[in-house]
Each structure stands twice: as structure tokens, then as C-alpha cells.
């Protein structure tokens, strides 16, 4: 079938290692030329790249990454991590648990899981290596902890969902809090059980710190705490919007590390370059994903598929289950932001017409996004974490499997018990 | 060939510098806008448009080539890294040339937009007037830059050399 | 394939070959929005009926084929045939005349004026020059100022207020001594909740989609703060390739859509004002107060016109024609 040719191209390009952005853009272009002609191919190539990039909302991406980059190059991320380790190092898999905590905190100031994963890979991986933690375990914990940034507000994914579906961003962000904490607890349970069963992946650390020494180690935590309080305070007191929070966070971080004399000019340049590399990589993928999704729209394949799902004579929960499975499957292959842009205009109306709560569905979709970030073959967080730590991607994928199982368990829990998600937004936003 | 690559890298780095500046200015401008709005109840006129129309476009388009150079446009390497080196090179040549053609069309369309906006004096109006050509022009510049980088890499790979001379130190 | 839809229509006259003509139409509204269901969808249904099914549509709603800013270009490149061109104010700026504060009272009145102005003047003056032809144009009800902390009842109350605005309202709020703030509509809720802004400018019909009713405490009614015009345009070459009876059907459907949607919006606006009054304190401005505001906002018209005149657009003539049509319809 000719209509499938661009799709086959995409899969082949991806499997054989073409950069993801170009695989999406080129196979989308082939599709546009085949099905709508040269004029419309040129039309899309004129509008899509510019309109995807020219976005104030997207400016949150470089700003949050910049904040994390300042934290990493200045070493204050590392300080936070060592303090966490002083307190939790004695627990089974203590450094792993410390990483989950750091990931949750990072998540509370950052909207980007890639920024968070990269920052923690630089801070946590060397420590865990020092104490002879298993590499796959290390990479698994770091990659998965990065995903906490997606659910715990602020979150680029939730903001994007809000925009694409015209669901209130405020309610969405609040709705992410409990599922986010639940997820972090789930990861800690996985670490504890895994280390109980298989103690050699995380050798016990023989350190005896007095309470006083441990309290003293907290003195290096203040810069990080100050930044977190300032950014969260900035968002919740209305100084900044969720989009602007990254810029304020980066600015405060810069001010703090400059006052502490923890950064020189060269490191400043390094932070800028790290930011540019991640941002441009992500934005180029978004451009490619837009072009590919416009091709799919023009063939009306996705619309027909969704219409077929809509017309199926089954219970509404079966339809919800099918949609969730589609998201998980797409998550294997595609960039998460591209998936949302591509599918939400189609799935969201179905969800609403079935009478499901749009905020709850947003959290479910976000949960599938978290899973997609660490599943092969395209697992952005695993790429970023293993890339930053200089380890093979395969180690990362090996290390996340039990965490993914926990994610799926929590996903089912969220589906079965909507009140977990909706309790907080209902409480805080009175009609 | 080496001299060409070296010369091109200089130009590439110059534009990378613009991208770096865009990141820094975006941080300052957005923060100052928020603070000014909070403290003085007065937004900085144009901060929103400058970030959206100029800084974002500059940041992304002018650094695409550099990101290509440091192999920062990620790919699935599970299968790819198991291929023999020569096969990887051949695939990279194919990918680079396809991507160069793709970027050519984006750059060409961006060039047309820029010229049209410039000749017709197209403006995004508000309290301040923002010329659109100054927003569009980074598309052709950045697209042609990465296109040249991709062609250069292909030639170097075909000659059996590494795609660029030495890894940037920032790449660690 | 879909090539038939736009590519081959330029060739010859298809008046009597009995083939179905397919037109692609795209906009940025979710299909749940009134502007889609009572606007574009109503239009498409009417065209289908009037041509006895000879014309069929492929509808791409909700930015499926491009962002709100890109529909003029996508129409020109024939990616689509009919596009929602309201945001192409860089090339179609004169259309903004109807968005200026106090340009009209009701949506019905405003739509009548702007649609007549399009047919008499703007179609030639700016649309055809850009390769498109307007299909229908509808003015939204006048925007109101919806606030959280305090009601805005007099001009003095505007001083120092941070207001989320769009389009030409930036000039208006600047004129009133308030601080115009740009942000995506979706951030309106959070921004109001936390005091990032003190209020937003919205027509009542946009309040519920952005959950503003859950956070707002006060709203003006009867203020003429400015508004927005929804315009759909067709690629002129595509239009010229259509048989005459289809052209007639498009024209009739366009007229009917203008009337239907504008009346619908006015009714909805009143209905929503009543509905929201249970949790938002909605206060009607007195005639005198409203007139005072209109007077204070008058300079916006000059600022808008002078700026465009400098760039070579006939803004003054446009205003003059607009006023003429407005008077003639009274
Ligand atoms: Na977050
Ligand atoms: Na994946």
C-alpha cells in the first residue's frame, strides 16, 4: 500500500540509525510529496519549522535546561546529592534512594525530564560508581528518576497537554502532585526489593556518621534549597508563570553560584552550550514530528483509525484501554512531545465524548509519557543519562525494566482510582 | 579539504555564539519582565515578542549545524553501533545527504519568506513594531549552515576521514 | 490520492462533469468550540446542501495542519483550499479595523459592517492582492475586563492593572494606563489565580473554555474594549476554477454563516452573562460611563491608523468606509 510507504520509511530510518529529527522530517516530506503534491510539501516546509520554533511556551525548554546546567557545572547538584547520601546511604540501595529524592526535588523546579536526567547523571553516577554499584542499576535509577520531572509540577508535558486540549493548566499541574509522589515512592519500593533480592548490585556502605556530622553536611544543601524555594515560591506567588519559571530559576541559580564563586567564565559557556545542544536537539525533533504529523493528517489515516475506535461497540473502558495501549506502543518509537501533538487532537474528543475527566486523562497520558521516555528503542531519558555518564545505552534499558513495571502498576492504579488524581484539583479549585 | 572544514568551523562557531547570546538574553529578559511586572506592575514592552520571534528562532536555527557537528541530533544506536565502521560511514553519508536536501528546502522557503517580508516591509505590530524579516532570516542562514556541514561531513567520510577534524572540548 | 482535491482544479471548468469537488478547509478551533460548530461546520453544511452534495469538504480543525499563524501561507501553497486567516495581520492588517475598541455594539452589528466592508472594499484592497478571497467574516462580542481582586468601574480603576490582552487591545490598555501583558490564553487561569495578572480581556464566550469562571470575581458588561474578527478565506485561483453555481453557493453560504454565527454569539453572550452571574459579579456600565471609556479609547483608532499609513496601508480610508457602512446600516 502506497499510503504506508512513508511510515515504512520512518521505521527503517529509525531502526538503521538516522537521526530521529531527520527521519521524521524526511519521511514526512516523502509522504507530503506523494499525497498532496509539491506545492503543499513546500507550503508545509515553509510554515512548520518556523511556527514550531517561534513559540514563547517552548522557551520553557531551554530555560529549565539552563537552570539544571548551572546546577551541574557549579557542583551544587553534587552537594545536594552527597548530603542525601549521608542521610540515606545506609539504607539498602541508599544511593539509589537518594537519587530518587534528588530527582523528585529536581522535578519540582524543572519542567523538563531530559534536563533533570542529564543533571543527575553528572551528579549521581560518579558517586554510585565509586561505591561499586552495578552500572545497569545506576543508569536505570538515574533515567527513571529523571521522569519524575514530567509528573511533578511544573511540567512541560502537562502544559503542552493543557494547550493542545484547552484544559486548564492550573488544575493539570496540581493534579500531577500526588501521582508524582506516588511514583517516587514506587521507585523506592522497587529499589528496596531489588537490592534485598540481589544485594551485590548495591554494596552496603560502611560509614558511620554521627547525627552531628550528618546535620553538618546539610550546610552545603542551602544553595539548592534556596533555589528550589525561590522558584517554587516564584511560581506559586505569581511572580512568574509556569513558562517563565525556568528563566527565573536559571537567573537565581546563576546569581547564587556567582556569589559562591562556584562558576568561572568557561563553565558559564559550558552551561550555555549544554543548553543549546539539548534544546536544539529537542526542537529539531519537534519540527520533524510536526512535518510527519501533517503528512499523517493529510492522509486522514489517524482520523479514520480514531473514528473506528470511536465507533466500536464496546464499553468505554475498553476504548480507554485501547487508547492507553496505543500511547504506550507509540512511546516505544516516538518522541513524547511529538506523540501528544500528533494524537491529542484525535483522542481527546473521544475521551470527552465518553464522559471521562480531561484532567484525569491528562495524568494518564503523562504517565504513558514517563514510560515512553525510558523504553527502547527511543528512550530519550536513557539516551541523555547514559550519554552524560558515558555508558552504553543498552545498560540503561536493562536497568529500567523493574521501574517500568512499577510505572505500569501505578498507571493501572490511577485508571482504577481516579480520585487519586482528582482529589487535589477538586479540593483547590472550587467552582 | 581540511582548510575548508576549518574555515567553515570558524563561521559555525560565530553563529553558535549568537545562539549562546540568545540563551543568556532570554534568561535575563524573561526574568526582568516578570520582576518588573511584579514589582512595578509594568511589563517590559516587547519582551514576549522578542523571546518568541527572535531569540527562540536564533537559538535553534543558528546552532543546528553545531549540534550536527557534535553528533547531537540523537538516533537509535542499538542496531547502528553494532554495524562495522565502514557501514556506519556509508549510512552516515546517505543520512547526511538526505538531511542536506531536506534542510535545503527549509532554507529555500525561509529565504523566500525573508525576502518577501523585507520587500513588503511586513511587521508584527503592537505597541512596538517588529520587522518580520529579522525573525525569518535565521531560518535560511541556519538551514544552509547545517546543509553545508552535512555535505562537508559526507565528503570527509567518503574520503575515509572523520566527519570533522577534532571533537570540541565542550563535548567532553 | 488527495491530489485531485486542490491540484487539478486550476485546469479547466468543471461545471458539468458531475464530479464531486473536494475542498480542504483548516482552522485552529477544537470542534467543541462554537466558532467551529456554528461557524466553519455550519458553512460547510450549507454549501453541501446548496450544491446538492457536489461540493464536499475535508475539515482539519484544531491546528491539525498548522499553527494559527500559518493558514494564509497554507492556503496560498494550496496545502488547503480555505483557511482561517484572522492571524495574518502582517499582510491583512486593515481587517483589524473592526477589532478596535467600540467599533460596534453587538456581534450581529459588527459582523454586518465588517462583512459589507469586505465585499465593498477590503476584498479588493487587501485580500485579492494577497491571492485570497474572504468567504465569511464574523465579529465576536465586545471583550470585557474580567478581574479577580477588584471590580473596574471607572477609568481610574484601570491605572496600574495588569491585564492579559490580545491584538489591538494592547494599544487600548496602554491608553487607559493599565499594563498590557501577553501570555497564551491557556495560562490565563493560573496567572489570575496567582496575581501574575489582575485580569483578562475575554468575550463571555471564551471564559468557560479557559476555566476563567472558576477564578474570576468581577466582570464588566457593556464595555467596548475591542474585539476579534474571525475570517475564512479561499485561495483565489481555486475559487476562479470553480463553476459559477458553486461560487454562488459559497457566497450564499458565507452570507448565511455571518448572520447565523453572529446572532448565535450574541444570544450565547447574554445567556453566559446570566449563567456566570452566580459566581462572578457582573456589573453593567452606565451609558455615560461607557461613553467616557469610548472617548478615552478613541486615540487608539488614530494610533492604529497612523502606524499603518506609515507602512503604506490605506487605514484612514478604511476607517472612513467602515464608518459610512456603520451609519448606513443604522
Ligand atoms: Na516538574
Ligand atoms: Na520509548
Which SSEs are present, and which pair or pack?
The complex is a heterotrimer of chains A (431), B (172) and C (330).
Chain A: H1 5-15, H2 20-53, H3 60-74, H4 76-88, H5 94-109, H6 113-130, H7 135-146, H8 148-151, H9 156-165, H10 169-175, H11 177-197, H12 211-217, H13 222-236, H14 245-259, H15 265-299, H16 301-311, H17 316-333, H18 336-353, H19 358-372, H20 380-389, H21 393-399, H22 401-416, H23 418-428
Chain B: H1 2-40, H2 47-61, H3 64-69, H4 77-80, H5 85-119, E1 123-124, E2 130-131, H6 133-136, H7 138-158
Antiparallel strand pairs in B: 1-2
Chain C: H1 3-6, E1 21-26, H2 34-50, E2 55-60, H3 71-76, E3 82-84, H4 107-127, E4 132-139, E5 144-147, E6 162-164, H5 169-175, E7 179-181, H6 188-193, E8 199-202, H7 204-207, E9 218-221, E10 229-235, H8 236-240, H9 244-276, E11 281-284, H10 287-310, H11 315-328
Parallel strand pairs in C: 1-2, 1-3, 6-7, 6-8, 9-11
Antiparallel strand pairs in C: 3-10, 4-10, 5-8, 5-9
The structure holds sodium ion (2 copies).
Task: Characterise the protein shown here.
The complex is a heterotrimer of chains A (431), B (172) and C (330). With 431 residues, chain A is mainly alpha-helical. Chain A contains 23 helices and no strands. The longest helix of chain A is centred in the middle third of the chain and has 35 residues. Chain A starts with a helix and ends with a helix. The model of chain A has no long low-confidence stretch (mean pLDDT 87). In chain B, helix 5 packs antiparallel against helix 7. The longest helix of chain B is centred in the first third of the chain and has 39 residues. Chain B starts with a helix and ends in a 14-residue tail after the last helix. With 330 residues, chain C is of the alpha/beta class. Chain C is 43% helix and 16% strand. In chain C, helix 2 links the parallel strand 1 and strand 2. In chain C, helix 2 packs antiparallel against helix 9, helix 4 packs antiparallel against helix 9 and helix 4 runs antiparallel to helix 11. Chains in contact: A-B, A-C, B-C. Chains B and C meet through strand 1 of B and helix 5 and strand 7 of C. One sodium ion binds next to helix 17 of chain A.
Amino acid at each position: 500500500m502506497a499510503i504506508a510507504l512513508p511510515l515504512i520509511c520512518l521505521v527503517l530510518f529509525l531502526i538503521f540509525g538516522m537521526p530521529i529529527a531527520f527521519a521524521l522530517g524526511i519521511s514526512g516530506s516523502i509522504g507530503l510529496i506523494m499525497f498532496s503534491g509539491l506545492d503543499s510539501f513546500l507550503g508545509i516546509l515553509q510554515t512548520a519549522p518556523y511556527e514550531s520554533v517561534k513559540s514563547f511556551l517552548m522557551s520553557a525548554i531551554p530555560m529549565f535546561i539552563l537552570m539544571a546546567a548551572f546546577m551541574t557545572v557549579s557542583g551544587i547538584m553534587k552537594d545536594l546529592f552527597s548530603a542525601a547520601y549521608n542521610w540515606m546511604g545506609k539504607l539498602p540501595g541508599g544511593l539509589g534512594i537518594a537519587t530518587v529524592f534528588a530527582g523528585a526535588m529536581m522535578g519540582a523546579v524543572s519542567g523538563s525530564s531530559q534536563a533533570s536526567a542529564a543533571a543527575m547523571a553528572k551528579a549521581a553516577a560518579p558517586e554510585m560508581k565509586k561505591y561499586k554499584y552495578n552500572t545497569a542499576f545506576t543508569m536505570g535509577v538515574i533515567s527513571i528518576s529523571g521522569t519524575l520531572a514530567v509528573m511533578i509540577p511544573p511540567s512541560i508535558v502537562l502544559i503542552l497537554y493543557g494547550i493542545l486540549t484547552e484544559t486548564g493548566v492550573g488544575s493539570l499541574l496540581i493534579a500531577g502532585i500526588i501521582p508524582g509522589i506516588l511514583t517516587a515512592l514506587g521507585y523506592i519500593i522497587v529499589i528496596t526489593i531489588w537490592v534485598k533480592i540481589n544485594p551485590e548490585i548495591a554494596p552496603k556502605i560502611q560509614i558511620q556518621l554521627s547525627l552531628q556530622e550528618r546535620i553538618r553536611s546539610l550546610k552545603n544543601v542551602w544553595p539548592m534549597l534556596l533555589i528550589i524555594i525561590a522558584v517554587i515560591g516564584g511560581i506559586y506567588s505569581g511572580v512568574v508563570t509556569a513558562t517563565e519559571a525556568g528563566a527565573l530559576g536559571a537567573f537565581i541559580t546563576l546569581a547564587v553560584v556567582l556569589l559562591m564563586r562556584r562558576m568561572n567564565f568557561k563553565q558559564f559557556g559550558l552551561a550555555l552550550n549544554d543548553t543549546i545542544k539539548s534544546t536544539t536537539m529537542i526542537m529539531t525533533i519537534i519540527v520533524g514530528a510536526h512535518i510527519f504529523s501533517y503528512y499523517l493528517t493529510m492522509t486522514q489515516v489517524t482520523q479514520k483509525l480514531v473514528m473506528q475506535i470511536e465507533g466500536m461497540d464496546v464499553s468505554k473502558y475498553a476504548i480507554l484501554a485501547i487508547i492507553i495501549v496505543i500511547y504506550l506502543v507509540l512511546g516505544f518509537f516516538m518522541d513524547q512531545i511529538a506523540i501528544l501533538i500528533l494524537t491529542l487532537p484525535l483522542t481527546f474528543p473521544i475521551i470527552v465524548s465518553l464522559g471521562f475527566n480531561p484532567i484525569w486523562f491528562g495524568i494518564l497520558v503523562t504517565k504513558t509519557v514517563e514510560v515512553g521516555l525510558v523504553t527502547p528503542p527511543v528512550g530519550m531519558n536513557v539516551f541523555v543519562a547514559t550519554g552524560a555518564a558515558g555508558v552504553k545505552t543498552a545498560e540503561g534499558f536493562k536497568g529500567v525494566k523493574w521501574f517500568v513495571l512499577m510505572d505500569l502498576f501505578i498507571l493501572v492504579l490511577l485508571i482504577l482510582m481516579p480520585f487519586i488524581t482528582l482529589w487535589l484539583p477538586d479540593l483547590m479549585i472550587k467552582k | 579539504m581540511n582548510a575548508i572544514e576549518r574555515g567553515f568551523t570558524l563561521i559555525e562557531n560565530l553563529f553558535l555564539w549568537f545562539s549562546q547570546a540568545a540563551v543568556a538574553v532570554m534568561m535575563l529578559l524573561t526574568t526582568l519582565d516578570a520582576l518588573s511586572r511584579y514589582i512595578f506592575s509594568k511589563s517590559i514592552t516587547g519582551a514576549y515578542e522578542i523571546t518568541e520571534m527572535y531569540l527562540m528562532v536564533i537559538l535553534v536555527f543558528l546552532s543546528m549545524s553545531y549540534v550536527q557537528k557534535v553528533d547531537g541530533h540523537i538516533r537509535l544506536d542499538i542496531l547502528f553501533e553494532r554495524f562495522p565502521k565502514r557501514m556506519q560511514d556509508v549510512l552516515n553519508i546517505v543520512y547526511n545527504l538526505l538531511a542536506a536536501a531536506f534542510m535545503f528546502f527549509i532554507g529555500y522557503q525561509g529565504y523566500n519568506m525573508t525576502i518577501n517580508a523585507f520587500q513588503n516591509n511586513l511587521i508584527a505590530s503592537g505597541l512596538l513594531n517588529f520587522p518580520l524579516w529579522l525573525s525569518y532570516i535565521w531560518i535560511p542562514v541556519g538551514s544552509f549552515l547545517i546543509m553545508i556541514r552535512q555535505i562537508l561531513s559526507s565528503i570527509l567520510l567518503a574520503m575515509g576521514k572523520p566527519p570533522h577534524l577534532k571533537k570540541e572540548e565542550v563535548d567532553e | 490520492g488527495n491530489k485531485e482535491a486542490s491540484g487539478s482544479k486550476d485546469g479547466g471548468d468543471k461545471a458539468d462533469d458531475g464530479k464531486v469537488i473536494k475542498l480542504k478547509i483548516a482552522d485552529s478551533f477544537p470542534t467543541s468550540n462554537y466558532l467551529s460548530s456554528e461557524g466553519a461546520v455550519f458553512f460547510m453544511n450549507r454549501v453541501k446542501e446548496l450544491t446538492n452534495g457536489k461540493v464536499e469538504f475535508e475539515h482539519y480543525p484544531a491546528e491539525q495542519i498548522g499553527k494559527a499563524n500559518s493558514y494564509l501561507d497554507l492556503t496560498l501553497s494550496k496545502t488547503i483550499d480555505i483557511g482561517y486567516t484572522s492571524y495574518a495581520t502582517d499582510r491583512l492588517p486593515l481587517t483589524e479595523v473592526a477589532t478596535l475598541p467600540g467599533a460596534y455594539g453587538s456581534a450581529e452589528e459588527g459582523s454586518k459592517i465588517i462583512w459589507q466592508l469586505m465585499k465593498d472594499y477590503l476584498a479588493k484592497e487587501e485580500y485579492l492582492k494577497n491571492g485570497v478571497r474572504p468567504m465569511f467574516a464574523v465579529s465576536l462580542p465586545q471583550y470585557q475586563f474580567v478581574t479577580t481582586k477588584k471590580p473596574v468601574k471607572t477609568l481610574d480603576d484601570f491605572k496600574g492593572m495588569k491585564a492579559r490582552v490580545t491584538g489591538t487591545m494592547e494599544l487600548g490598555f496602554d491608553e487607559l494606563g493599565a499594563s498590557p501583558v501577553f501570555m497564551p490564553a491557556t495560562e490565563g487561569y493560573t496567572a489570575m489565580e496567582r496575581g501574575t495578572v489582575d485580569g483578562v480581556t475575554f468575550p463571555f464566550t471564551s471564559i468557560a473554555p479557559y476555566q476563567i469562571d472558576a477564578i474570576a470575581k468581577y466582570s464588566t458588561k457593556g464595555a467596548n474594549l475591542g474585539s476579534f474578527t474571525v475570517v475564512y478565506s479561499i485561495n483565489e485561483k481555486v475559487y476562479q476554477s470553480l463553476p459559477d453555481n458553486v461560487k454562488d453557493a459559497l457566497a450564499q453560504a458565507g452570507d448565511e454563516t455571518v448572520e447565523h454565527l453572529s446572532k448565535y454569539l450574541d444570544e450565547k453572550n447574554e445567556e453566559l452573562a446570566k449563567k456566570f452571574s452566580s459566581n462572578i459579579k457582573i456589573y453593567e456600565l452606565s451609558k455615560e460611563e461607557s461613553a467616557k471609556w469610548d472617548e478615552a479609547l478613541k486615540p487608539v483608532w488614530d494610533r492604529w491608523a497612523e502606524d499603518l499609513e506609515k507602512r503604506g496601508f490605506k487605514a484612514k480610508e478604511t476607517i472612513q468606509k467602515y464608518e459610512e457602512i456603520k451609519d448606513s446600516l443604522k
